[in-house]
Amino acid sequence: MAELLRTALVGMPPAKVGKVREVYDLGDEVMIVATDRISAFDCVMANGIPDKGRILNQMSSFWFELFADVCPNHVISVDDAEVQKRCHQPEPELSGRTTIARKANPLSIECVARGYISGSLFKEYRMAGGSVHELALPEGLIESAILPEPIFTPATKAQAGHDENISFQQAADLVGRETADFVMMKTLEIFSRASAHAASKGLILADTKFEFGTTEDGILWIDEALTPDSSRFWDANLYEPGHAQPSYDKQFVRDYLETLGWDKRPPGPTLPTEIVEKTRAKYVEAFERVTGKTFQS
Length: 297
Description:
Blueprint: E1 16-17, E2 21-25, E3 29-34, E4 39-40, E5 43-44, H1 52-66, E6 75-77, H2 80-85, E7 98-102, E8 105-106, E9 109-116, H3 119-128, E10 146-152, E11 155-156, H4 168-175, H5 177-200, E12 203-215, E13 218-222, E14 231-235, H6 251-257, H7 273-291
Antiparallel strand pairs: 1-2, 2-3, 3-7, 4-5, 6-7, 8-12, 9-10, 9-11, 9-12, 12-13, 12-14
Helix pairs in contact: 1-7, 4-5, 6-7
């Protein structure tokens, strides 16, 4: 299995490059290519996870289609034939990993929904000794505990380093109250329905983050949707509050990196074959359990 770490499409201007995705401007549309790059601790590793980009793209496509009635999204097509029509020559490496999407201006906040307290919010909750970011959280919560009801915890988009959790009022100050109200409502509605779907597959959706963008026709749900890169999925049979849970994400990568004595600054190290294979298997399992489909490499 070959990994795709970079793209350079003939006849197209250079792509806008993110940690994982590369975006080509097609005029009225954009072509979004999910590569096999993987990042941890805000650094991109020297090698990738084969098929990771295809899994992310196809999993996002599944969710965007499933919840198209909840919120308009940016997807025009994920069909390989439609992708090739936009190319100046055959680009077989784009197969399964590419979305043709509407252009939108991304909001300056990440929209995060949480049904359980874990990750950065639990760390802040513990340090604060209780409620944080104007959230009325119960006292005495333990790590990975279920919340009384899902909550909306927006975050800033950091150009470098980690995103930072902010209050709803701070989010409203950044994007406007009407927009903040709208994306909070949509975030929680999608999260609620996605959690129910995950539960039917024996999974817990602990939290997830969404992005929204503005267009002349209104606000669209953009970027990626409920993938292992943007969400915490836990196996319901293994759930045990009081500590961090095994997740369908980059856990093997992070655990390996913690053994290296690496300073967590670029460039990221090369991952050994065992870690690559275990991580790929987790992504494949997440895709297959969520979608009910067999992943085709």
